[in-house]
Amino acid sequence: MVLPPQPIQFQPKAFSAMTTFWLIAIVLLMLALERIIVTSVTRHPRGRAWVRRIPFLHPNAISLMRIPMGLVSVWLASRGNWPGAVLWFAFWMITDLSDGTIARNCDLTTETGKWLDPLSDKCMYFPPLIYFSVGEDILTPINPWLVGAFLVIDTLGQASRLISQKKAANSFGKAKTALTTILLSAIALNQVSPIWLITPQFVTALTIACVILAFFSCYCKVIPDIWYANSFTLANFLCGIAAIVLAWQQKFILSLVLIFFGQFFDLFDGRMARKYGSTKRGPVFDDLADATSFGLAVGCIIYFCLANHEELVPSWAAMIIAGLFVVCLIYRLYRFLHPTKDMPSGIFQGLPSPAGAMLAGSAVLIAQDLEHPAFGLAAAAVVILASMLMISNIPYRHFARSIWPAIPRGTKLLLCILILILTLITITHKIYRSSFVWLCLVSTIVYTIAGIDRRKPDEIAAQERLLADNGDNGDDETSENSEQRP
Fold first, then answer.
1. What per-residue confidence (pLDDT) applies to 483?
2. Could you tell me which of 431, 409, 377, 421 has the C-alpha nearest to residue 478?
């Protein structure tokens, strides 16, 4: 008896942890070589002329070639060839950097490219997202509802380019693409060899972050420019409200994480206001949001944490210290709108309120973990010191005006992505929460010391004249027009 031919079943192959290591090494090597080769070639006149003569090196041609490659990656993964799928996907996502660099350096930016490049990115990561949400034998699948929300929002963002004048990818879109690439790569590498970090909770948190970035990318394409600043301020305010609720629920580290996110929104709302303007009550709204996030929320953390050290810090003393901090911070915010001393451009009068909040909040959380009453007393001293620094006349460099603009654009995006991932690890892996708090404390101490402006008045005047002569470029990573990409 002759049996009918059976369909070929592709069994997933077993790979070792060393395979994952080599895959990561190869991807990083590809990224480094791409940056070195493309950047060096397009910066040389002969290299630019050579690139312009090669049709398939045109940015639009690269974007067109990238469109079907996401499906190829899924096909490789479905056959169990996870290393091939990872390398193929990584190679073509790296070309997203190449076409942008070529377009800028070789003056090949086109109106078509402004919507074609984001479209090709979506064609790259949409198929893997769907496959990782409904495919079989996925160790850490993505929630299908979150994937559906992401697809809808991202599609609406792409469609908005048909009616909006803001066709180029904004920085939220770039961050979303980078984070989605990291999400898909992490899941694929986990298929090669299980990684302890890639848990269902971490994958869910990372997917939610991608959905939020997709929403902000779409939102910033359709709202008037003058609403940018207030939108960031509103996000900061909502972070503060949520942080207060979590603090009352004794979830102090998660409350600090939200305050940490609020700092980023506060970082950009001022830059958006200076670049695009704001509403009449924008500064007052900004102070209200800062008072909520950096004042009331941190005050709750201070009180509850210090009250746990009743041997040296009685409950009534914890209340007074927390109240002192809130009052000093509110006065600091009031003095920002009504300064009592003329300060040079880009210089704060006293320690900025976000830095004071992070210094005080992280200090009391560390003291609570260490449990010894003496650390509670030391944390109370740090809170009082932060309060005094905020209302002092010590000149501090403005982070958004003096420090952040000096960082290269690519480095800014990389730092934001790394900080976001570290924060998500803190949320989903409890064993790293104390490390996050220590990182916040150490970084704030560094700014508290190194951020003091020690320049002499004549040096400040000379630098201001130089800026006035050259013009302030107002560079901002979150602006819609900060970079015209193909």
1. 32
2. 409
Contact criterion met (CB below 8 Å) for 15 and 193: yes
pLDDT value at residue 169: 64
Can you give the pTM of this predicted structure?
A: 0.82
- Tokens 């350096």 belong to residue: 105
CATH class of 17-222: mainly alpha
Per residue in 236-291, pLDDT (tens digit) is 999 999 999 999 999 999 999 999 999 888 877 777 777 777 777 777 888 899 99
CA dihedral 163, 168, 169, 170 (to 10 degrees): -90
What pLDDT, in 10s, does the model give residues 25-60? 999 999 999 999 999 999 988 999 999 998 888 999
Residue identified by tokens 């409904």 is 134
Give me the amino acid identity at 326: V
> At the topology level of CATH, where does 225-454 sit?
Four Helix Bundle (Hemerythrin (Met), subunit A) (1.20.120)
Task: Examine domains 17-222 and 225-454 and report if their fold is the same.
Answer: yes
With both helix axes pointing from N to C terminus, report the angle between 59-66 and 111-134 in degrees, rounded to the nearest 10: 20
Which of 140, 125, 150 is CA-nearest to residue 207?
A: 150
Question: Residue 397: beta bridge partners?
Answer: 347
Q: Which one-letter DSSP state was computed for residue 429? A: -
Q: How far apart are CA 125 and CA 176, in angstroms?
A: 11
